[in-house]
Amino acid sequence: MVDAALAQVGKNLNEAMRILGDGQMEPDAGTESRRFSRTSIPGPLQGDGQDVTTILHLVHHLIHEEEDEEDGRDKASQPIQNVGEQGHMALLGHSLAAYISVLDRERLRKLTTRILSDTTLWLCRIFRYDNGSAYFHEDDRDGLVKVCRLAINARYEEYTTEGYAVLSSRQPVIYQSASCRPGLGQHLCNQLGLPLSSLCTVPCNTIFGSQHQMDVALLDKLIKEDTDAGKLPLLLIANAGTPEAGHTDKLSRLKELCDQHGIWLHVEGVNLATLALAQVTSAVMGATRSDSMTLTPGRWLGLPAVTAVTLYRHEDPALSLAAGLTSSQPVEKLRALPLWLSLQYLGHNGIVQKIRHAAALSQHLLLKLKSVTCIRTSVEDEQNSPVVLFKFSQESNAGGSGGSVDGLCVGEKEVLDTFNRWMGEQLAQLVPASGVDVVELEDEGTCVRFSPLLTAAVLGTQQEDVDEVVQKLLELVPMMSATMNLRQDFREETHRHAPSLTYIEELSWPGLGAVRYESQAEGADESRRKQEQKKINDALLTKLQELDTDIFFSTDPEFVTEENCIFVGMVTDDVDVSELVDTISTLGRDIEESGRLLENMTERVRKGILEAELQLQKANEEKLLEEGMLRQLPVVGSVLNWFSPVESSIKGRTFNLAAGSLDSTDVTYSTKVQAGRTSLQDIPTLSAKRLSGQRLFRRPGAGSDSMSETSSIGPADESSGVESFTMSPNIHPSMSMSQPETAEHAEAYVRPAGLLGNPEQVEAEEERQPEGQEEDLSGR
Question: By residue range, what is the domain housing residue 442?
Fold first, then answer.
């Protein structure tokens, strides 16, 4: 009969996983979401308690709040990861641990002892580690700290009584490979209170063997030197699968060397998972003879919140207790409970199947990559390598150096690393279930890593995902090859357009290159020149992004130091680089000329307004002398004009923007045609020459329609015109000008200010205007 409390624990866990996992909210929870939106700000604890459902909804909102704010999309319907049934068992273990901890002491002791014994026995048998003990820990580095403390207690007999004082007589030395996890040795020294001088990093092979394996001969030499110097070689950290490349040290030779000098051998790495398989390589099999090794079954089997395990061999329980590897507190033994439940749920066959599936994925990808050109792989063992490294190589490119990284200059190697970094990021984004990532290696440079033992169980990677990775590679590699080959052409074409265009040497940009349009304005100070340059390049980038092309144009990325640049992305082999650069130069020049025309037009309008005001003031004075003071009075002037009308000789003025002069409107009134006006529809634009459906920057005969240089250039920005300008408050109709295609024919008309005081004359003047000109004279 199942305990009712245990059944309730399982029920509550299922309900919590349903709310947190599938994101289904109750209908009335929408009103509470507005209250949850302020949970990022800490506040006081509420006086009244809340039910479990409300608290779970709050946790759900906190988990997905940042995603909703950043992406503007609801990602709550997506699970956090592929937990699976075995993951639910691991999560159930944490809930049961809290329940079991309240049992009476004797029952708790028996239960925890059974859990710890079962889990230790199962792990030792699965991973071929006979007569071993287990230490379960949250931090995967904590096991190494404990076994190192155990080694200190074993080698320094008076350490338990004298403490660190006994270490001054013979300083302990800890050896680690140069391929170990970054910061592992420093963390070990900090936890043990040892100086960093106690840490010795052993270089890897440089001539013979893998360049990721520890140099055994050099290690032997270092040990002898430390012994002669009065130091005590204490512990050696070896790798069964380096963190980046997945290579395994020569563990058998290292074990012989450690036995010779009395050194504790500790092994860690992802390749230790293959010990569960029926067939294991001899290199990895050497780990079973080590003094201790750290396993991470949570990552290998896709178990969330499962502790790491350090298996070790030592005959003295008192020293193990002093080192912290064992505990007399039953509650601490409950750390193994989630793993105990998960291992029982999976069974031995299920555990082996997951590890075998991950290893098969690596072999499948390695086989597929052999048929992809320009992709070079790097594995430790062609027949059995859980980790696959691959990178884009120039070996098939024109003028390449056979794919050898050593044959490349510093700039070319950095560009190649940039392209590989971009390729890895694209693959991770396009096929997220694959779990590929980017690693930086000292010799190989930037590579893409596929390590399914660490990701497949968590992400649910299948063979179809590997095939999709290869398919995306087949799409990306030709583009990368074409871009790499055309980078030099782009540089040369940009130099040909100097000084209007400047090529920016940015090796960290994954694309064709970077260019900047240089303003040709003379006499401007540095700050004004930079502002003008930024304005032109921003407008140029907008124009380029609006073009009908597949090429990606971007502004300055965060990692570059140059400013006001336009970055051109990846291109295909049918791109006409000359046409592309010509378009950039032409558009930049059009934008600069449009801006300069607007500035000149503004200055001419300002001067014209001043001149018009002076002439209008003069016309008002002449009108006053001609008509007399009486006609200017409102009532008297109307009576006099009724009995004795006066024909005014004052005419209007037209302002020529191109010439910057005020002219009489007599010609306009006599011909009833605005002189010099050219219809915008009569002016052909460059964009009108392009045929519908054509793509820009394609070479003739390259799989797309050929296009002329002018057809690829979009229309210049014609929005720089000004609709109207008010010259003076004394002028009744505002002076206006139409948006010009050329400045020579843009005109605005000005009325004498004297017409403002006499409504009859205003009407008479309007009646004298020819039809079609009233809109220009009254302002639009």
Answer: 353-394+411-480
